Amino acid sequence: MSLILIAQNLNKMEKNKQDSLAITEVLENRYFKGIYDGDIALLRTVYHDGTLLFGDVKGQPYAKTLEQYLDGVKNRQSPKESGKPFKGEILSIRIVNSIAIAEVKVKMYDFVYDEFLSFHKIDGQWFLVNKMISDTADHPFIENSSKALVVDTKVTVVAYMNVLPGFEKEIKEALTTMSTASRKETGCEQFVANVRNDSPQMIVIYEAYKNDEAFKLHKASPHAVAFFEFVKSKIANDKIEGVFLTEVDGSM
Q1: Using one digit for the tens of pLDDT, what is the confidence trace for 149-205?
Q2: Considering the entire predicted model, what is its pTM?
Q3: What is the rounded distance in angstroms from the CA atom of residue 205 to the CA atom of residue 202?
Q4: Is 90 helix (H, G, I), strand (E, B) or coil?
Q5: Which of 45, 49, 119, 201 is deepest in the core (most CB within 10 A)?
Q6: Which residues of 182-200 are buried (b: 16+ CB within 10 A; e: fewer)?
Q7: Structural domains of the chain in order of their starting residue, each with its CATH number
């Protein structure tokens, strides 16, 4: 390899390193910070005019213009004000000349967003020109109980879902598979799926787990994740309602 070619490769590597650091600075000091603080002015320095945002949130299609997105940020409670945990994490950055793709993960409110962010270098600066997001938090399970779950305390929950007409057989077959797999979990004490006598479309599932950790492992298990995906568009509002129970004893 000639010295000229070696020098060219070294220059390219150094340029990519500098560009990667520049994009990292945009993400860490402006993108994540702007989202956390709800700082519209700071976020405008990240996006190029006309940027579009697409993806899904809670299993529903998501499509916004930049102005619609910024207006939503302006009128919502910021993650900082909410007091809930927030984390922005850069997973990877790939650069080819003046274009780049950054994969990031943002945890905010009750959402976990996996994002693919397209960047373009314009007049020496990197701007976000397209944003694709997908909410990967445990959905469609909704926790309605106001009581916080405690580690090492037994977790009992009754889950409800309303099956849309035409999907009864498919859902029941999927539930049979789900029930069998769930009862094999080490921390699962009971998992029984029922149909209400007065409402055949309504499924009622009684579940019991040794503790909160066992319940979390259940929700993250391959069979549970597969079931949550399978029921989308087959149950009302793509939603499974959950009511948590506490056994009545003399201390109440």
Answers
A1: 344 578 999 999 999 999 999 999 999 999 999 999 988 999 999 999 998 899 999
A2: 0.53
A3: 10
A4: strand
A5: 119
A6: beebebbeebebeeeeeee
A7: 3-135 (3.10.450.50), 141-245 (3.30.70.100)
